[in-house]
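Lecture 7 notes: from sequence to structure.

We start with a single chain of 506 residues. Read the sequence below before looking at the structure.
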Amino acid sequence: MAEQEKRRRTAKKEQLIDTAFGHLQPQATDIEKVTLGALMIDEDAFSVVSEILRPETFYEPRHQKIYRAIQTLNMNEKPVDIMTVAEQLKRDDELDNVGGAAYIVDLSSQVASSAHIEYHSHILQQKYIARQLISFAGNIETKAFDESVDVDELMQEAEGSLFELSQKNMRQDFVQIDIVVENAMNIITKAAANKDGLTGVPSGYTALDDITSGWQASDLIIIAGRPAMGKTSFALSIAKNIAVDFRQPVAFFSLEMNNVQLVNRLISNVCEVKGSKILSGQLDEEEWKRLDAKVHLLSGSPIFVDDTPGLSIFELRTKARRLVREKGVKIIMIDYLQLMNANGMRFGNRQEEVSTISRSLKGLAKELNIPIIALSQLNRSVDTRDTSKGVDGKRPQLSDLRESGAIEQDADMVLFVHRPEYYHLFVDEHGRDLRGMAQIIIAKHRKGATGDVLLTFKGEYTRFANPDDNSLDALPPQYVGQTFESGMNQPSDDPLGPPPPMIPQF
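Now the structure, written as tokens:
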């Protein structure tokens, strides 16, 4: 009998030693016993720790089984004590595996009250997270020694696993409403001080800002449209308005175009020079004047461009945090959502991956407390609809969002960029001329009204503008009458300085 007890103790010691790392795994079995004992003597104790502890939080396998039995009793609204726990373990055919009823009695005899159970549960949670991190690090270390493993893929897997681990163990505590009321009143007071009523980041489009009050902090905004509708041009126009006109820092993640193509579009937008001519360099004299006169607006503007292809949601999180912390970025724009990925995580299909990306973008917006605008594709159903019904026949709907209904659910606002003119529809239901116009359809607005906004669309300049905006049609006075031999010449007394745009890449 003594020999059996000796072997049992030796086996237990071996169990506590992790041979892969040469250290004891983080664990606190004595605290596990005290916690389980407290749960069996105080019927209210489980509600205190239920959000903190899970069966796998316990290191000792027997304690995992006992906690699972306590969990089951609470879910079924049954009383929890040494008798009911033992009975539940018997029903689960686990009573003998945990040491019998005698072990259950021994656990409850070790504690007199549940006064410190929350403190104890946090200790167990920390030990559990430490064990998970050790397992995570060991797995990555093993694969890093394997020369057949692609390092870039391993980095993506590591980032994905670490993100998944942090999400599972992240717990947002509640706050008393007074603090929230104070914050809300501060926002209302600031809004009252603004004559335009804006409480968020302005888009630069008057009618749109009247409905949205600006892009609101922590919101996920989806801008969607079919190809050739101009959603990228719309996003760039918004970015230009925010960074150039309002001098607020913007981050633009372009998964579709490289940074030079993106800047060329911005130059076309600001200077009203056709994109084809910027690409070929074949500008006439008037266009050189306009380019040299206005390209300086982009120089030094707080636009940060990232053209990483195949950007993952985990890379985005890392870069976004740095941009907000180091550059003071007020809004993030992504072109476009379906080109992102969630490498390092396993999914049954693409819809699940897009759902995870969408949910992560919303979580990131809340974490950084800034608006995030993500462009999205629409499926082909818009193109197949009957035009005989007029403008409404081609009108996009929320069900047209491509690849995942979760995009609609996660978004605080969904806008469609729609140009009826593209489908040879030139008049709306009110008889308004739609040639050269774009409808910005606010299809979902969690915090306010929905509706349509009409903007002028100048496709050759990739530019959206307010219908009454003629600010870019005229040259500054000092350029009138000047003759330019090349685009790099400027009047000698020009106070604007050298024009080349330097858009920082991040």
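The two ends are 70 Å apart (CA to CA). Keep this in mind for problem set 3.
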